[in-house]
Design brief:
The chain contains three helices and seven strands. By secondary structure, the protein is of the alpha/beta class. About 30% of the residues are buried.
Length: about 140
């Protein structure tokens, strides 16, 4: 996975929202957890202002399928706040925080894909990605 400076973006995720995502991901371990990122995008910056809960409809523990009804609710919530859906987050229990083949198939351009690597010891590592020209590029994650 490459970081191309021409396509480089920064995802700003306040510490409180980061802790909320980590908590949700660890709470459902070893099942994958998912949600929606709401905020604003300004050029190379994506500012997350709210984390919207979403149900994982996948039957397998190591997969996520974000409930489309929850995605519509997140869009409505974002619109009511004068913001946008800027991305999706989900956990990877016992897997690295890199997009899988299935993640790539479901990804939309112009959204951030925040992946939380969680393990049995209770640690969480976050990385963010953006689909560009069919390939994932890593975004810089800042508080």
């Amino acid at each position: 996975v490459m970081i191309d400076p021409k396509r480089f973006t920064i995802l700003r995720l306040p510490r409180a929202l980061r802790r909320e995502i980590e908590y949700r991901a660890l709470r459902t371990y070893p099942r994958e957890e998912c949600g929606v990122l709401i905020g604003r995008s300004d050029g190379g910056w994506i500012e997350v202002s709210q984390v919207f809960s979403a149900r994982n409809l996948a039957r397998e523990a190591a997969r996520f399928e974000l409930d489309p009804v929850d995605l519509v609710k997140a869009h409505d919530c974002a619109e009511s706040l004068g913001m946008d859906v800027v991305g999706i987050w989900h956990s990877h229990p016992n897997q690295v925080a890199e997009p899988s083949h299935l993640d790539r198939l479901a990804a939309q351009p112009n959204w951030s894909y925040l992946i939380v690597e969680v393990d049995q010891a209770g640690s969480a590592k976050l990385r963010s990605w953006r689909l560009d020209a069919g390939e994932f590029c890593e975004e810089e994650l800042r508080a």
